Amino acid sequence: MLPTFTPALGLTPNLTPGYYLRPRPQGFAAHISASQQHLVSVRALTSAELLSHGIDADAVHSAQLVLSELVGNSVRACGEHVPLVVEVYVTSYGIAVNVHDPDPGALPQRRSTPLDSAEAEGGRGLGLVDLLAPGWNVRRSAIGKQVRCRVAAEPEWG
After folding, report:
1. Residue 72: in which H helix or E strand, if any?
2. Maximum average pLDDT range among 13-17, 93-97, 107-111, 120-124
3. How much is the pTM?
4. CB-CB contact of 122 with 69 (8 Å)
5. Which residues pair with 146 in a beta bridge?
């Protein structure tokens, strides 16, 4: 069961403007207006939900990093408060992290910045996604585009 209140943030999904939460088998779909507060809440929800399904802490952290990068890319492409759908759920092959945004033309672009570059101020995000969720892809969806990632994970009891 999904938490209905995020005490540290004062957020009550489905009662907080710009934050609608829908349970789904083994996870959730959060319809959000992109903001720092909503991202923090969705990251906390991701942790609670995945841990409740027996996913180890390292894989949970990886899923949170992938989620943050995808949401950040959507905000950079579409602007502040862009409406997003963030899906996180456990599958037989790991953790699915999908982010939908309304711009089908703003596709994620990898930069040539090496992950270990001391001089670069940015441009490492998709390289990090490549490491944590190899084989991620983008497809057009009914609301724009969907970036689909799979983070490898096994339940701790599995």
Report:
1. helix 57-78
2. 93-97
3. 0.84
4. no
5. 100, 139
